[in-house]
Design a protein that fits this description.
heterodimer, A: seven-stranded mixed β-sheet, 12 helices, B: mainly alpha, globular, disordered N terminus
């Protein structure tokens, strides 16, 4: 952890301590349980017919990786020089609602009108019956719902439109009652997407939809619908908010470009770089790695907290690379035109290093981006440990990439995926974080005693252990079935799942230099937490991490 | 006494179910209210969210394998919806916490993050959840959660350490 994450944890605990849970809340809950009725029927209603539940769909951005700033990038060729291979390159000018235009309820505008519409729909009036949509009530993807189609045609006046998960990904929260931020784009009638030849893998709805603002930019609307009256399959739906989304900034900062959030901005497509250009950049990058110098020039500048490329010029044993191969995983991916590749570097020793890279374009320059993929670098199939400097640089260790990188937490590759290692300074003595405010322990021995005293923890007696060359303590804890930690650093052995275990290493911090006067950590804690069934395996994975810990006091 | 049918399992009486909910309430309520409070900045709304979520757990008890985990997801989901709704009704009251200058500054900066970044940061650094846990709660890929965390942390660093 860094100073920032230390501060986050400390200040968030302080903020949370300001909450004031009502001591009589249980009475209110019980009263509401009574409102449910006490018949068998009331209690065994299938979920789909529970009209009191809400259905919340929240739009989120389709996770699209795009280029970040790269002033030092050596680009091969300017991707934006590519022409648009189309027979209808003329930009389309059509009447449009200006960006930022928004509105409220439709087709009814008041609660009483909605109630009237509900009554008429209940009576079978076809003029209102269409507002009842069992599909929406049943969690189906919203884009084909009639309320959207009618709103787009009747309210916005768009002749054609498109939507889909490719740019309007959304997730569901609780089922019931609302869809927020459903995004549609306007399509120019009678035209196809002029970038079709460059995006042969784009979804059909995109290939059939030409932008209306210019060849790249779509009029985009975000729509919320809900059932303000009755919920469930018989309730009427209305649009309760809509907005013509604003244009994307011409120049996005490095962090703003990591994800393109199409629920907030116009959908805009880019001319992707050619496969040849991408291959040229990759080839040059990998040849430089084999040559042992110059590869850094092909990497885009990443934010400071991002992971650096491990094993750039040699394997962990120091063996240089002698050849490479590349495999395209995907791309160009609409609408930003990035590619994802897996590269393999072979050393004479037979060791194979595999790494994922994105090849992206910004301002006509191509570069490589590392650290955005789901997976990380492997060596002969095993995750590669990389050096980490944490806790304000006072502690270093080697471990697989951190999640999130840089915060001191390692998610371990275990059979269950639940094992984890935490590296912390001065964790609260209450690992469940429920005391208000939690008290910090002044030394390792005090902290060990406090943790061992937590109810429902079965803890061993502390035993001496060497951590980073210093005398520390080790205790093993088994979490009882009632150990329902939902907050705090213990990180939630899931409620109701007995049999989790933790090994905790505690060691007093060495004296830091006077230059770091603002922060005086007392105890370094490393916790290995895993289900009992996988605990030994996780411990084995964690062992090199624990053994690699070093203090840096200067 | 009413009896509740349990799909594929034994039958629970309503008293059994209320007793189990009571145990869950005792274990989780205060912690969940604190978590919700850090997200929605309103004690009243946080309590309402957690109570609604407990009611939902009760209703769905026969189908829930892990009530505690389900409760957490329900609370987070409702907090997320509350944040979304607040954008449309910015006049809704929020609490002004009585905290140190440092925590107050963090509170202000957190409120300026996007909803997903704020959720990810609070769940990670107050809730203590990992990316995969947060991904399950927010129903988004873990990689997306990591991106929100990276962006959120970078924004916080920029604002707090400027």
């Amino acid at each position: 952890m860094s100073h920032l994450t230390d501060r986050l944890e400390r200040d968030l605990r302080e903020i949370a301590a300001g909450a004031d849970p009502s001591p009589s809340a249980w009475n209110a809950i019980v009263a509401r349980l009574g409102d449910d009725g006490d018949s068998d029927d009331a209690l065994v209603l299938p979920l789909a017919s529970d009209e009191s539940k809400r259905r919340v769909w929240i739009a989120v951005a389709a996770a699209v990786l795009v280029v970040i700033a790269a002033s030092a990038v050596v680009a091969s060729r300017a991707a934006d020089d590519r022409s648009i291979p189309t027979d209808n390159p003329e930009p389309v000018t059509v009447p449009a609602l200006p960006p930022g235009t928004s509105g409220g309820w439709w087709p009814q505008s008041t609660s009483s009108e909605v109630q009237d519409a509900q009554n008429r729909a209940d009576a079978g009036d076809p003029a209102y019956l269409w507002q009842v949509d069992a599909g929406l009530a049943a969690d189906e993807p919203p884009w084909s719902a009639e309320i959207f189609a009618r709103f787009i045609k009747e309210k916005l006046g768009w002749e054609e439109s498109a939507a889909g998960a490719s740019f309007a990904g959304y997730v569901s929260g609780d089922p019931g009652g609302e869809y927020d931020g459903v995004v549609f784009v306007r399509c120019a009638p009678g035209r196809t997407n002029p970038l079709n030849p460059l995006y042969v893998d784009a979804p059909a709805e995109i290939r059939g939809c030409a932008p209306t603002i210019d060849d790249f930019t779509y009029e985009t609307v975000s729509i919320n619908v809900s059932q303000p009256g009755r919920g469930g399959p018989s309730g009427v739906w209305v649009v309760d908010r809509w907005e013509i989304l604003p244009s994307r900034p011409d120049s996005l900062g490095p962090l703003g470009l990591v994800l393109t959030d199409f629920s907030q901005r116009q959908v805009q497509q880019a001319v992707p770089p050619s496969g040849d250009d991408v291959a040229d950049v990759l080839d040059a990058f990998l040849r430089a790695r084999v040559d042992g110098q110059g590869a850094e020039a092909y990497l885009l500048a990443a934010p400071p907290d991002f992971e650096t490329v491990p094993l750039l010029y040699a394997t962990t044993d120091g063996a240089p690379y002698e050849r490479f191969e590349i495999e395209r995983l995907q791309g160009p991916v609409w609408p930003n035109g990035w590619f994802e590749y897996e590269v393999r570097l072979f050393a004479e020793s037979g060791t194979v290093v595999e790494q994922p890279f994105h090849v992206v374009s910004q301002n006509g320059q191509l570069g490589l981006l590392y650290g955005y993929s789901e997976h990380s670098t492997t060596e002969n199939g095993a995750l590669v440990a990389v050096p980490h400097s944490e806790l304000g640089g006072t502690v270093t260790f080697t471990a697989p990439p951190l999640v999130p990188r840089g915060d001191g937490v390692v998610e371990m590759p275990t059979a269950t995926g639940d094992g984890r290692v935490l590296v912390m300074a001065d964790p609260p003595a209450d690992p469940c974080g429920t005391s208000s405010p939690p008290a910090d322990a002044a030394d390792a021995e005090t902290l060990a005693r406090s943790i061992a005293a937590v109810p429902h923890f079965e803890a061993t007696e502390p035993v001496p252990v060497l951590v980073a060359g210093r005398n520390g303590l080790q205790i093993d804890v088994t979490f009882g079935e009632q150990s329902l930690c939902t907050t705090g650093w213990i990180r939630n052995p899931p409620a109701g799942d007995p049999g989790w275990r933790m090994r905790l290493y505690l060691v007093d911090y060495p004296e830091l230099s006077a230059s770091d006067s603002a922060w005086r950590p007392q105890v370094l804690a490393m916790a290995v937490i895993a289900p009992a069934t996988d605990f030994e395996n996780v411990l084995e994975h964690a062992k090199p991490i624990v053994e690699s810990v070093e203090f840096h006091t200067g | 006494m009413a009896t509740v049918g349990v799909r594929g399992g034994p039958r629970l009486t309503t008293d059994d179910r209320v007793a189990q909910l009571d145990a869950l309430y005792r274990a989780e309520y205060a912690g969940m209210v604190r978590l919700a409070y850090t997200l929605v900045a309103s004690n009243a709304e946080a309590e309402e969210i957690v109570q609604d979520s407990l009611i939902e757990v009760y209703r769905r008890w026969p189908e829930i394998r892990k009530p505690g985990a389900y409760l957490r997801s329900a609370v987070v989901s409702r907090c997320r919806s509350a944040l979304q709704r607040r954008k449309m009704r910015p006049s809704d009251p929020v609490d002004e916490p009585c905290v140190s200058d440092s925590a107050g500054e963090l509170w202000d900066v957190l409120s300026r993050l996007s909803d997903d970044q704020r959720l990810a940061v609070v769940l990670r650094y107050y809730g203590g959840y990992g990316a995969s846990d947060i991904a399950a709660m927010l129903e988004m890929p873990a990689a997306t959660v990591r991106s929100h965390l990276r962006r959120g942390l970078a924004a916080l660093k920029r604002e707090l350490e400027a």
